[in-house]
Amino acid sequence: MAVSDSVQTPTHEYWRPPRDCWVRLNRCNIPSSVIACLDFQERPLPLELDGVMIPHRDLFRRLERLDTLEARAAQFKDYMTVHFQLDAPEKAGFDLRSRVRRDKADYLSLLRGWLFNPDGREGAVMKGWVASRFGLLPRYFGGRVAPDSEGYQRFLAEQGAGVYNANALESQLDLLYTFCQYALLKEDPEARWLTLYRGVNRLESHDIVARLDRNRVVVLLNNLNSFTPNRERADEFGDRILKMRAPRVKVLFYSSLLPGVLKGEEEYLVIGGLHEVALSG
């Protein structure tokens, strides 16, 4: 929906997510329709994925003994390597003589693939993970997608190919998200929001639900999006800048969480839904 020049008076309708952007089933403690609504941006609630904290409680006990982000990041990466047998693929059930080798697909390759092309196979896996865990459907994947459309079928095909015969990629992302939330909480226990920016070239290509005034709009974001905390960095990606107060609980990953993984980038991966954003540029 393109944004119009007229200012629309906000009503409760703008706070409700469109029915085609979410599904009832998810794997966390908050309903999908609540996560997608505009009110969640203003009053975010803690999000906890099903079946993560209890089986991995030993990891978080170890993290509590460490004092620095660098030490915690090293501990996390070591734990992921051991738990998912990332350096011993044959122990994870891979046939190293197979013509098709999927043992190199892991959470790090997903992050690097996203950085290279969010609409590639790795991006499909990550957007599919958001749909599965939080119940928010993708709005864009190499073009606009809607349920039952050809574009959505292409997305499902890429997602299926991305997770096929791989090593519990969605479970790896579960743990990555949970560690990210743990780290953000350690950095600042009082911070519920982060100020982030995104550069865009064509605002009308986004799902604009309402224009609140000349410089504020309500936008329905894709189910997973790249933002940056650096306003100047956002300028490199578009002539209009979206400034958003992003709920901390919607951050899947940020570059300094695992130093050296996304070299030279200042990127935050943010889960979508309805958000109010300020426009500049």
Structure description:
It is a single chain. The protein is of the alpha+beta class. The chain has 9 helices and 6 strands. Strands 1, 2, 3, 4, 5 and 6 form a 6-stranded antiparallel sheet that branches. α6 (121-134) crosses α7. It is globular. The two termini are 21 Å apart. The model is unreliable at 1-10 (pLDDT under 50).
Descriptors:
alpha+beta, six-stranded antiparallel sheet, 281 residues
Helical run tally: 9
- Structural class, from secondary structure content? alpha+beta
Taking all residues together, what is the mean pLDDT? 89
Order of helices and strands: HHHHHHHHEEEHEEE
- Enumerate the spans where pLDDT stays under 50 for 5 or more consecutive residues: 1-10
Largest β sheet strand count, sense and barrel closure: 6 strands, antiparallel
Structural shape: globular
Q: How large is the share of residues in beta strands?
A: 15-25%
Number of strands: 6
Q: How far is it from the N-terminal to the C-terminal residue, by CA?
A: 21 Å
